[in-house]
C-alpha cells in the first residue's frame, strides 16, 4: 500500500477453520485489516448497523451459512444490504461456483472459491483497492465512450437512458441515439456504482429518465426516455419478475400524487 490505509474488512463465515484462514490471509497481505469475523447473518447485521460499521470497505460473505433463517443466505444478505445508503463492497467467498452469475448481477466485486489461496486473495484485494482509488479520484461518474461505426461517441451519464445486453453485445440507449459499447453490463455497473438501476439481467436503466411503469398480467415494463405519450422518444424495458416489486417500491418512494394500496 502506498500512502493509503488498509481496506477495512468484515468476514461472514460459519465454518471457523475457513473463517480463521481467511482472516490470516487478509492480515498477512498488509492490504486489509479485519475489523470483524462473524459466523451468522444476524451478527453481520449488528456489525454493519454499529457506528463503526459505516467505515467498512468490504464484506466477505459465504453463500451457505449454517443456522441462517429459512430462505436466507449470503446472496439474499448482499441484496438486502445493497439497498442501504453507501453500502460497502461485497465479495462472495464460497465452495460453490454455481452462484457466480447471480452474484455478479447483484454487483459483487469478486467471487472467491474455496480453498482460498494467498495469491487469489491478494488479487481480490488489489481489485478492491483500485476500485476505492477510482472512487476517490472523482466523486462524479465517469463519461462513457461508445462506438458509432468508426467514430467514438463521448457521453455524459445524464444523457444515457439505459444499457442493454443482447447476443453477447452491449449497447447504450441515449437522447442522441443507440450506440455500441465494448463493456459488459457488469463492468458498467461497477464503474457507475448505483447511478444505474439493474431491472433485468440484460438491462440497466437511468432512474432519472424513467417516465412510465406499465403492468399487464405478470409482465412489467418501464418506458425510459424523454417525454410521455405517443410522441415520446425512448426505449421500452422489461423488468424481471423477481425484481418488479422492488422496482415499483423504489419508484414510489418519496413521491406524491397517487394513493398507495
SSE layout and pairing:
Blueprint: E1 7-12, H1 16-29, E2 32-38, H2 41-49, E3 58-61, H3 74-81, E4 89-94, H4 100-106, E5 110-113, H5 118-137, E6 144-148, E7 151-155, E8 160-166, E9 169-174, E10 177-181, H6 185-192, E11 196-200, E12 203-206, E13 210-216, E14 219-226, E15 233-239, H7 241-252
Parallel strand pairs: 1-2, 1-3, 3-4, 4-5
Antiparallel strand pairs: 6-7, 8-9, 8-12, 9-10, 11-12, 13-14, 14-15
Rounded average pLDDT = 85
Number of helices: 7
Specify Rg, calculated over alpha carbons.
20 Å
Q: Major sheet, described briefly?
A: 5 strands, parallel
Number of strands: 15
Strand order of the largest sheet: 2-1-3-4-5
The count of domains is 2
CATH secondary-structure class of the largest domain: Alpha Beta
What coarse outline follows from CA principal-axis ratios?
globular
Q: Please report the distance between the alpha carbons of the first and last residues.
A: 53 Å
* CATH-defined architecture of the largest domain: 3-Layer(aba) Sandwich
Low-confidence stretches: none
Tell me the series of helices and strands, N- to C-terminal: EHEHEHEHEHEEEEEHEEEEEH
Fraction of residues in H or I helices: 25-40%
CATH superfamily of the largest domain: Response regulator
> Strand portion, in percent?
25-35%
CATH topology description of the largest domain: Rossmann fold
Secondary structure category: alpha/beta
Amino acid at each position: 500500500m502506498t500512502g493509503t490505509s488498509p481496506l477495512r474488512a468484515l468476514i461472514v463465515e460459519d465454518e471457523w477453520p475457513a473463517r480463521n484462514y481467511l482472516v490470516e490471509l487478509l492480515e498477512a497481505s498488509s492490504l486489509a485489516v479485519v475489523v470483524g469475523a462473524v459466523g451468522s447473518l444476524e451478527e453481520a447485521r449488528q456489525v454493519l448497523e454499529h457506528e463503526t460499521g459505516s467505515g467498512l470497505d468490504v464484506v466477505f460473505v459465504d453463500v451457505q451459512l449454517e443456522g441462517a433463517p429459512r430462505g436466507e443466505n449470503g446472496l439474499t444478505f448482499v441484496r438486502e444490504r445493497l439497498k442501504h445508503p453507501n453500502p460497502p463492497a461485497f465479495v462472495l467467498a464460497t465452495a460453490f461456483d454455481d452462484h457466480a452469475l447471480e452474484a455478479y448481477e447483484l454487483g459483487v466485486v469478486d467471487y472467491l472459491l474455496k480453498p482460498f489461496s494467498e495469491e487469489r486473495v491478494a488479487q481480490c484485494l488489489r481489485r478492491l483497492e483500485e476500485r476505492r482509488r477510482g472512487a476517490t479520484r472523482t466523486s462524479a461518474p465517469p463519461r462513457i465512450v461508445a462506438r458509432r461505426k468508426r467514430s467514438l461517441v463521448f457521453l455524459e451519464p445524464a444523457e444515457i437512458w439505459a444499457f442493454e445486453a443482447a447476443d453477447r453485445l452491449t449497447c447504450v440507449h441515449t437522447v442522441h441515439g443507440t450506440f455500441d459499447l465494448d463493456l459488459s453490463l457488469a463492468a458498467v455497473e461497477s464503474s457507475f456504482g448505483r447511478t444505474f438501476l439493474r431491472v433485468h439481467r440484460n438491462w440497466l436503466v437511468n432512474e432519472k429518465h424513467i417516465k412510465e411503469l406499465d403492468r399487464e398480467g405478470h409482465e412489467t415494463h418501464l418506458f425510459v426516455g424523454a417525454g410521455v405519450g405517443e410522441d415520446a422518444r425512448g426505449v421500452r424495458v422489461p423488468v424481471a419478475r423477481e425484481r418488479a416489486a422492488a422496482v415499483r417500491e423504489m419508484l414510489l418512494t418519496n413521491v406524491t400524487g397517487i394513493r398507495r394500496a
